[in-house]
Structure formats: structure tokens, C-alpha cells
UniProtKB/TrEMBL annotation:
Belongs to the short-chain dehydrogenases/reductases (SDR) family. InterPro entries: Acetoacetyl-CoA_reductase, KR_dom, NAD(P)-bd_dom_sf, Sc_DH/Rdtase_CS, SDR, SDR_fam. The keyword Oxidoreductase applies. Signal peptide: none annotated. Keywords: Oxidoreductase. NCBIfam families: AcAcCoA_reduct, PRK12824.1, PRK12826.1-2. This is Acetoacetyl-CoA reductase. Residues 3-178 form the Ketoreductase domain.
Length: 241
């Protein structure tokens, strides 16, 4: 059955692949993005999927954006919290703006979207929420206290919300990708990236399909017994329990 699915940060990288996966499953997919209108236009031209601009870190903007999507397309039953940014630096050199931006975009965004959409999902007794964390939220990463805190926070958020929503037919799960070949990772200096790849047992970066297929699996209506789980997809780089 086709449902309305929203993917935050859906216009590029992992988010785009998830949008396409969900569309291929027969869902009406809507992407969100933060500010890159050109990338969003190219995405919509490529995929036929509409894109809505709002800042996932801003509660009022999220509420207005999601209400607009519901009025245009119908109730949102599948939510993928994928939008994310990095602002790296060791703690001593990290200013408040870089802390706040990363926490707001990566973690507060999950509160903003879920607080807006969970009441409707509860009423309809169905929901699939997938939160994109990171291996760095599981293992920790030098120079990323902000990103690591946000991505670890997503894992706790996922488990707590899974408990709160389980009896309403809503599942809440996290995916923790390892290093995936997107613009975010292409921004890492080549010598650092080479060292990272050497630490990945399968010997390569992930590709966006490695993550989007898992998101499709977790969004599947049949998979109603998987909730509060974290799916680590990292080529064996880190084996979290
Ligand atoms: P990209 O940088 O390729 O794309 C990020 C997307 O998020 C874009 O669509 C961007 O929109 C959107 N976005 C950024 N800030 C906001 C905002 N404030 N409001 C709304 N949308 C926003 O990212 P990736 O595909 O690499 O990463 C996707 C997710 O996966 C992130 O949460 C990331 O942390 C996580 N992840 C990525 C890994 C990797 O190796 N790539 C590894 C582990 C986790 P716009 O184009 O307008 O800027």
C-alpha cells in the first residue's frame, strides 16, 4: 500500500537514495532540504520527487513544512530523519555556534519532526520512523564532540520513542552508517580518508544503496516487530552490540 513518506535532507547523498528506494516501493515520497535550491531542483528533475525547503532545526519551520506536505499529499506515515551536517573541530576550538548548529540539525530535528507527526501516527495506529545516526555516534570520533553527541543522542531518542509508541503500531529504528561515499565524506581530506578506508574490513566506502536498502526494509509494513533497533552498516568497521 502506498503511503506518504518524508525524508529530511532527501535531495542529496544518502537521503536521495532513500527517497528513490521508498518511491520504488510504491510510496508517495516528499523530500525536505535546507537551502541548496539548485541541488533540490536537480533532484526533482532527476527523480520526479517534490522537495520542500525548511530548516529541520527550527521547530516552527518544521511544523509548518510538515503541515503543508500533509495538506498537499495526505497524512505522513513514514518519516526518515536523515538531514545532517558536520562542523568539525576539537573541543578546545569548537565555538558555541558549531556546537548548536550540529545538535540542532542532527538531533533536535528528530524532536521537531516526531513531535509534529507522532500524534497523527498514533491516531492512525501506524508509523515507521527511521533515524539516521552514525558509526561515529557509536564509537566516538576525534574532532567531532558535537556530531558524536548528536548521533549518540539519536540512538537514545530512538529507543525511548520506540517504547512510547510500540503499542500504537509505530516502529522507531536507527541506522548507523559507516563512511558512505557522499559529498559529506568527499569533504574529508584525501589522506585522512585513505586511513579511514584502511580500517574498514570490507576495504571500501559504503555506497548510498547500502543504506537505502536498509531504510526500505525498516519502512516495510510487514516489519512491525523490529523497533528500538540500531542497524549498523559499516563494512565491519565497528561492531556495536
Ligand atoms: P549530504 O551532505 O550529502 O546531504 C545532506 C542533506 O541534508 C542535504 O539534502 C541537505 O540539504 C540536508 N540538510 C542539511 N542541513 C539541513 C537543515 N538544517 N534542514 C534541512 N535539511 C538540511 O549528507 P549525507 O548524505 O552524507 O548524510 C546523510 C545523513 O547520514 C546525515 O545525517 C549524516 O550525518 C549521516 N551519515 C553520513 C555518513 C557518510 O559517510 N556520508 C556516515 C554516517 C552517517 P541542502 O542540500 O539544502 O544543504
Amino acid at each position: 500500500m502506498g503511503r506518504v513518506a518524508v525524508v529530511t535532507g532527501g535531495t542529496r547523498g544518502i537521503g536521495e537514495a532513500i527517497c528513490v528506494e521508498l518511491k520504488n516501493m510504491g510510496h508517495q515520497v516528499v523530500a525536505n532540504y535546507g537551502g541548496n535550491d539548485q541541488a533540490a531542483k536537480e533532484f526533482t528533475d532527476r527523480t520526479g520527487i517534490p522537495a520542500f525547503k525548511f530548516d529541520v532545526g527550527d521547530y516552527d519551520a518544521v511544523e509548518a513544512g510538515l503541515k503543508q506536505i500533509e495538506s498537499d499529499f495526505g497524512p505522513i506515515d513514514i518519516l526518515v530523519n536523515n538531514a545532517g551536517i558536520t562542523r568539525d573541530g576539537v573541543l578546545a576550538k569548537m565555538n558555541c555556534d558549531n556546537w548548536n548548529a550540529v545538535l540542532d540539525t542532527n538531533l533536535k530535528s528528530c524532536y521537531n519532526t516526531c513531535h509534529t507527526l507522532v500524534p497523527g501516527m498514533r491516531d492512525r495506529k501506524f508509523g515507521r520512523i527511521i533515524n539516521i545516526s552514525s558509526v561515529n555516534g557509536q564509537a566516538g570520533q576525534y574532532g567531532q564532540v558535537n556530531y558524536t553527541a548528536a548521533k549518540a543522542g539519536i540512538l537514545g531518542f530512538t529507543k525511548a520513542l520506540a517504547l512510547e509508541t510500540a503499542k500504537y503500531g509505530i516502529t522507531v529504528n536507527a541506522i548507523a552508517p559507516g563512511y558512505v561515499d557522499t559529498e559529506m565524506v568527499r569533504a574529508v581530506p584525501a589522506d585522512v580518508l585513505e586511513k579511514i578506508v584502511r580500517r574498514i574490513p570490507v576495504g571500501r566506502l559504503g555506497n548510498t544503496g547500502d543504506i537505502s536498502r536498509a531504510a526500505g526494509f525498516l519502512a516495510d509494513e510487514q516489519n512491525s516487530f523490529i523497533t528500538g533497533a540500531t542497524l549498523s552498516i559499516n563494512g565491519g568497521q565497528f561492531m556495536a552490540n
